[in-house]
Amino acid sequence: MTTARPSLDPELHELLADMPLMSQLSPEVLAQVRPFSSMPVEPLLEGRAIDRREVTVHAKDGAPIPLSVFSPAHPDRAAAAPCVYWMHGGGMVMGDRFSQLDIPLEWLDEFGAVVVSVDYRLAPESTGTTLVDDCYQGLLWVADHAAELGIDPARLVVAGASAGGGLAAGVTLLARDLGTPTIAAQVLIGPMLDHRNTSTSSRQYSDGPGVWTREMNEFGWRCVLGDLTDDEVPEYISPALADDLSGLPVTYIDTGSAEVFRDEDTAYATRIWAAGGQAELHIWAGGFHGFDALYPQARISATARRTRSDWLARLLPTNPAA
After folding, report:
1. 1 found inside a domain
2. Could you give the 3-state DSSP secondary structure of residue 316?
């Protein structure tokens, strides 16, 4: 029996029809798709007045963690800039620090924000909290070098898409529990929050349509959790497990109605409200996972991206150089 489910936005449905899709991931398939999971960064920088700096920090085990720092080429020297710390998507098994980078670069353009993107280690080569710990170590470096980077430590925003959204949520929980650094806001775009993969929406989209199915989600989680049993999964890698969502910074969450993560993302926002926190939640009707990154030209994508930026505009000043 076919499970009833929300249909795709008509424009997205038409765009998606021309794209070859897969519904399964395996070690063999992952090896084939990894080289194509990120686009070169240079085209994104063309025509933008941006200074780029490459930095390497080190994990607790000594492993290198590359960071890319993108700053306005002509900043307002009279004021420190906001900072967006970006974690890329890719199901925790693919992608790199340039994946979906066009999203935070729009905030550099609009708000004069310094964007720092982290190249955390990927599963299955790295498992457990390694991924979120890498992201946290990079964030600590940013906070410690705020003056050098020209950023205002009081306006530090963590953001990410898909797996990166889940890691952003985990980093925010970790920073809250360890007491540092202070995070002003978190932006979670279609975040991957719950390893249990048992929600109604995950079952509705077990075979697509879209670019991330329930089966692919199961593969990604198996890779990152390794040999951990359900009782051993840390909340920092699967944030939906966190018992306490109080004390979090203001939060923006958006997702599509036609995707695997819809229900776990809605539940996370609901639990933030229940804990007395502030969250803004948008469920885009007919949106599949990652729709606004894959097809930014679609009307629903443009609206989603503009709404996200409008929310940030309430927190961050307009770029004085614009």
Report:
1. no
2. coil
pLDDT 10s digits, 30-70: 999 998 888 889 999 999 999 999 999 999 999 999 999 99
Judge whether 275 and 246 are in contact, CB under 8 Å: yes
The model's pLDDT over 82-132, given as tens digits with 9 standing for 90+, comes to 999 999 999 999 999 999 999 999 999 999 999 999 999 999 999 999 999
The secondary structure of residue 320, as a DSSP letter, is T
* Residue 96 in domain: yes
DSSP string, 63-120: -EEEEEEEEESS--TTSPEEEEEEE--STTTS--TTTTTHHHHHHHHHH--EEEEE--
The answer to whether position 2 is within a domain reads no
> How many domains does the structure of the chain reveal?
1
Contacts of 167 (CB under 8 A, 6+ apart): 87, 92, 120, 131, 132, 135, 160
> What CATH number does the domain containing 90 carry?
3.40.50.1820
Largest CA distance in the chain: 63
Burial class (CB in 10 A: 0-12, 13-18, 19+), 153: middle
Cβ contact 70:81 at 8 Å: no
Strands 50-58 and 279-284: unpaired
Domain that holds residue 250: 10-313
Residue 153 domain flag: yes
